Fold:
Amino acid sequence: MSTLFSPFAIADLRLQNRIVIAPMCQYSADNGNASDWHLIHLGHLALSGAALLIIEATAVEPAGRITPADLGLWSADNETALKKVLNALRRHSPMPIAIQLAHAGRKASSHVPWDGGQLILPESGGWRAVAPSAVAHALGEPAPLALDNAALQGVVQAFVAAAQRAHRLGLDAIELHAAHGYLLHQFLSPLANRRDDAYGGSLENRMRFPLAVFEAVRATVPAAMPVGVRLSATDWVDPGCGWDLEQSVVFGQALQQRGCSFIHVSSGGVSPLQQIPLAPGYQVALAETIRRETGLPTIGVGLITEAAHAEAIVAEGRADLVALARAMLFDPRWPWHAAAELGAEINAPRQYWRSQPRGLSNLFAGAKIGQR
Structure:
């Protein structure tokens, strides 16, 4: 039997297989409101046969958007718009749906990628970014505004309010975004965090704010709702200069002690000077170490595109689940094709049962096809 297509549970959330659709920013919202694009995009993915769909990085406040077109969950309008999308998805797919709550910090107020991705200055329609310290992300950019204690508490409350909205929407899990150089990662990394108060300097201090956000979110939703973290396990800079795997293990252990449900292991994003050794599964060894040292259910991600590779990762215990992003966009039926290759069954909508190629009549679970 295929391990990739065996069931798994994250706390009380039962998953039919080990395939996760990773969050992928679409930059297609209107003042944070989900649009028709989200209905089409997420609806497409909800029919893929994966075990869990994680909605893209969703800003907890307007200043936390990467771009003006980011999805948000800071207002009643945002909640209403997303509810319409979720209601449509649930009518046609039983797939569990999670959401990634995020704050971009100093990487906020940017153009969408297809318009270049550069910082948008306030005088050009952007806004002043905030961060742990007044340290710009890239050379030549203006420094962000360092968050004072009152503003920090405001960010915590923004995460809490967004988590409450996520629970009201009936979402199945929450993932907090502490990766890719965004605000929570900025607090963790000494490359972005130059504070000299209780939130900067030592590892304990740099972890303090991300842990406070986690604790506040964990406390505001029911215990049965999984709350996990997306983590950049290394900054990929010179040793001793930034955030690294050893510190990630300590952070993961602290999260585990506070009731974290899972950890989704990524890397990089905080420094333009990063040197990433791209290769298939290049982040899996990071996930394997964190899984071993924390005992947390772990999602591995990073250029995993082949079914046999994904199967080996979970079968060898290097990660509990594998997540796909760009590969899923390129091939939204990736789980079907993986099941066919690995000799497994996959759930598919009844409307698609007749699509099974000859010789794969046992691919779709429960399929019964008649013809007049």
